[in-house]
Amino acid sequence: xxxxxxxxxxxxxSAERSVAVQVRPRSHETASQPPSPDATKTxxxxxxxxxxxxxxxxxxxxxxxxxxxxxxxxxGPASTAGSRSSSPQARASRQEARSAKRGSRTIxxxxxxATEPARATTTLPDFSAAALPGTRRLCQDGPSVNRLEPVxxxxxxxxxxxxxxxxxxxxxxxxxxxxxxxxxxxxRALTHDELDARLAAGDRRHGxxxxxxxxxxxxxxQAIRIDVTEWTHGRSHRRALRRGDSxxxxxxxxxxxxxxxxxxxxxxxxxxxLARDDARPMDSxxxxxxxxxxxxxxxxxxxxxxxxxxxxxxxxRGADSLSAVYCYYDPEVRDVGIGTYSILKQIDVARERGLxxxxxxxxxxxxxxxxxxxRFLPHERRIHGRWRSFARD
Length: 393
Known about the structure:
25% of the residues lie in helices and 24% in strands.
């Protein structure tokens, strides 16, 4: 009978011993063992003793053999003693039957190797083995993405979420409008497939939080993605790639926070007019919460010009997709076009890894900072809950 798994423990840091419990059938459920030849001669059965009374209730000895019937005594201790003294072979057979009965009630602990439960493990992207296509040089500075520890997950658990914010507030994209963007916090790390499902449903990520525009009477925000299997670089895209490849050094690593990144993020935000009038400079803890904290696999693409960091593109990794979380760059490096170049690089990375989609976030027709995404054709947009294709003219 195969072991029945009733309890298992799995720790994200180390595999704890899994305990499987095997309950064998009770004595009345087991088939009686065939009597031994010696026991047959003495009339003794080798099965477990009956709990009832009567002439045949004790050790199973035949009354004509032991003489208990002739003495007028039925069942009971006397007849039991008589059956036990019948022969050494019969006693050995009864001992074997009692051992089998006790064994049928034991609970066996199986080794963890034999009973370890199936589990899902997040697999981190492997980008350290090869350079990005078309780049002049790939520097792998900082810790490799492959050295990050995977997060073991119980395969049968669905990701629960906590709703941490759901209030109407001024729209950050369209002045004069009211927005509603509920913020949800996962309670555990997401698998690649779970991240894909969220992206396909229109979710975006802000640090450890996920959100989806849910504004009453407004559908201006449309999730947009590129099917990289159908994508071909146009003439302007090829020029942008050649221009960037000629001057930029590209490297990939895990998202980190340091003084250079915080300063570059602020330079991008204030230099391109993306900050509110009352906005204050970013600090390290705010940067950490926005671009480093996460519940899914992520990496950053780093762009260096003459050894100086001039751009960073934080990117999430799903089972079948990449998601461009946020890209910031030095606005003074205008001739390179790092924003366009970064999207084209993410397309190439997704294609090299055999992925299908690159999610670009939200497209908003009336928002100047978001409208550029429509230039990447063909693409798909999520409108009224369905993905619609937009082709080149």
